[in-house]
Amino acid sequence: MTERQLGLDDLVAAARRSSPANRIQWRDPIAAHGMAGIDAVAPWLAEPVLAAFAIRVFLRAGMEGHRDGATAALRRARRTMSVVLRADVDWALRQLRVSAQPATVAPAPVRVAAARAATLRNHRRPLRRPMRSPDRGFLAVGDPAFGRPSG
Questions:
Q1: Interhelix angle 67-78/48-63, nearest 10 degrees
Q2: Helix crossing, 67-78 with 83-95: angle to 10°?
Q3: How far apart are CA 40 and CA 34, in angstroms?
Q4: Do residues 140 and 131 touch, judged by C-beta distance below 8 A?
Q5: Per-residue pLDDT tens for 46-103?
Q6: How far is CA 2 from the centre of its chain?
Q7: What's the pLDDT score for residue 1?
Q8: How far apart are CA 134 and CA 36, in angstroms?
């Protein structure tokens, strides 16, 4: 019997029985079932040996037109995974060109220039004028020599 003649349950069973080195041959046939394939291997996320394969099934299904479902499943799975598998999920999400965290609504931008102008209008403080320093040659703004070329 060829892979095309096998049903989803048979594909999942064959992938589970396969060695880790050979399991990848079942990824594309399972992912071709779309959301049903994602749902079939989702329980594998709890098993460290099978979780990496399940993540790759999600990624392939997402690349074949089930991006929203794959993204949602990966984000849900990410919350409960170990650091190593979380890095795998982040990689898969980058491949799908989405962020690991869902986008949140950004706060409205604050108009800094208008807020600062209002603050400056309402808050007047005396200007400090530079003092004349004989050793450094600084001149006060109000000094008659201020602004004339030296020398």
A1: 150
A2: 160
A3: 10
A4: yes
A5: 888 899 999 999 999 999 989 999 999 999 988 888 888 999 999 999 998 876 555 5
A6: 39
A7: 46
A8: 85
* Cα end-to-end span (Å), the chain: 100
Candidates 29, 33, 31, 53; CA nearest to 43 is 53
Buried b / exposed e along 26-52 (16+ C-beta atoms within 10 A):
bbbbbbbbbeebbebbeebbeeeebbb
Assess contact for 93 and 99: CB atoms under 8 A: yes
Question: SS3 letters for 29-73?
Answer: HHHCCCHHHHHHHHHHHHCHHHHHHHHHHHHHHHHCCCHHHHHHH
Nearest to 63 by CA among 39, 90, 98, 11: 98
The Cα–Cα gap between 23 and 26 comes to 6
